[in-house]
Amino acid sequence: MGSDSFRPVDHEDRERARREHGTSFVLEAGAGTGKTTLLVDRIEALVRSGAVTLDQLAAVTFTENAATTMKLRLRERLERARADLARPPEERRRAEAALEVLERAQVSTIHALCAAILGERPLECGVPPGFRVADDAEMPGSGAVLISAARFLARLSAYLLLYRPSV
What we know:
Blueprint: H1 11-19, H2 35-49, E1 58-61, H3 64-83, H4 89-101, E2 106-109, H5 110-120, H6 122-125, H7 149-162
Parallel strand pairs: 1-2
């Protein structure tokens, strides 16, 4: 059996994640299984179709390396889409607009997304305005505002229910 005929067991689920833009998905799989590729495929399709702009979505991963890789791959895809004269002009324009905001887009770690949400709405999340995220070297009592994971997740869940995105 050649490598061209290989189909992952979850092939249909992967295709649904690529096609069904009105459905939210959570991807969970081991290293090297294609999560980043699938997310980049989905983001590119959403942006090129005009369903969302890049500043209207969040792509979240757990490591800085994965977030950086995702952004780099997305940049490559968007640059190709922008330069592809065979694509409709509107798709090329959307790719251009996405490239302009890519560095500010929430293609990040869960920690960076949570910090951004807390920074945008500190009072609603129950943290003091101007808080900062403690680094690994800081200990409780050093003046940093530390939030317990359980408390934060409860507040984040409530926030997401109140401000649920459309896509």
